[in-house]
DNA sequence: GTGCACATGATTGTATACAATACCGCCGGA
DNA sequence: TCCGGCGGTATTGTATACAATCATGTGCAC
């Protein structure tokens, strides 16, 4: 393991523009499942709440739509995204393609500094679970994967994983089957162990099976989408 | 090979909002290297050219910044992105991770319809090269990869590849070494052959070596970035 | 001649006003 | 009773005006 404490490159990609505060706040609420998929995000409503003009609200909503967290429907408004079963499958296929390899890279590029951050993060996860803060626990659980991708020092891939994790949060909100969030805890712990020892192959395998566990805990049968809008299918 | 002609899912992800025309036009110009990296895109300038208000121009620039084609600097304006050497390497590492596997999937899901489109595309590439339209040829060359990813029927991954191809265009504009674009032609032809025969493993290998060829045709030595702004490094 | 301070001009960030479009309840006719 | 047209209301799309910030060039002090 390297011991150099290179500064962590936590540059939010392209999200620093106008309405950053708003983007962050909404993003947080969505990740913590306080805003559920399908919720309408009215512009006037948000501009009232945050005391900014609709201009910046629109800007923020646009940013979120590019992260695929909200869906913009022309002349109808912004809604928290509702990934379909098909999209859900795709997201986890993509994660299966990217994350195991990234975990391996992370193990190889592990630093003392990063390990400390990772352990602290794990601690925070446990604390949130213990405190019964389900939303916060879920968000941290997702962010754990993002942390790892950042350690791998591939900001481009990390950006993709960030998007995938975000969508995963929505997917979990829609399709979660069991309520056992405990498996997460152990899986993450085991991953940190492997990463700490620089065991890349182990980390890769652990990540792969961890992702598989998540997918199998989802109910992705071809059900008629939760609440589809015929307009979105039968476009004139 | 399947023969069902399922409708191609060419849904532009989240890019249908305001200023779509503008986004398309600018995107085209960037892909064809008519707008070079570092070029400033003034808001008034664009609003004059396209006869729309600055509101929609800003919206379009924001969209492009989320695609990482342009960089938005607060209070200083929008510029066509200048990927660094490091970012260039990351982009092609990501492509190496995603595209070969995707090519394999494409081979497995090939349809008569898709094959026809692919061949037509190849023809267009040849025509552009023959006509000496270097910019157009380059753009089509990139779009070829996107077509394949769409055939693989993984819209999420296809979206990532689309972004990577876009960045690749900028990278090529900055770091291209040789001027032999002919290799592309043969590589793409070979790929289509493999895809047509449903030879997934071959397609995967061909894509891998094709991407490697592109990278080796780049000059990615650690050079002092083309024209950096000290402000971007020494942030107070 | 060099370096700093300030004023001026240009460009972006934000807010507001108006126009276009879609949603929803009502009403009339079959 | 059900379907289709119609108008009011609400919400989004676009344009414009004003405020804040940054770039540039001049002049003065050293």
TrEMBL record, chains A, B:
Gene3D superfamilies (alphabetical): GntR ligand-binding domain-like, Winged helix-like DNA-binding domain superfamily/Winged helix DNA-binding domain
A GO molecular function held by the record: DNA binding
Pfam families reported in the protein's UniProt record: FCD, GntR
Domain HTH gntR-type: 16-83
Keyword Thylakoid in record: no
SMART domains, per the entry: FCD, HTH_GNTR
Alphabetized InterPro entries for the sequence: GntR_C, TF_FadR/GntR_C, Tscrpt_reg_HTH_GntR, WH-like_DNA-bd_sf, WH_DNA-bd_sf
UniProt KW keywords: DNA-binding, Transcription, Transcription regulation
PROSITE patterns xref list: HTH_GNTR (PS50949)
PANTHER family recorded: HTH-TYPE TRANSCRIPTIONAL REPRESSOR NANR, TRANSCRIPTIONAL REGULATOR, GNTR FAMILY
Record protein name field: HTH-type transcriptional regulator LutR
Originating gene: lutR_5
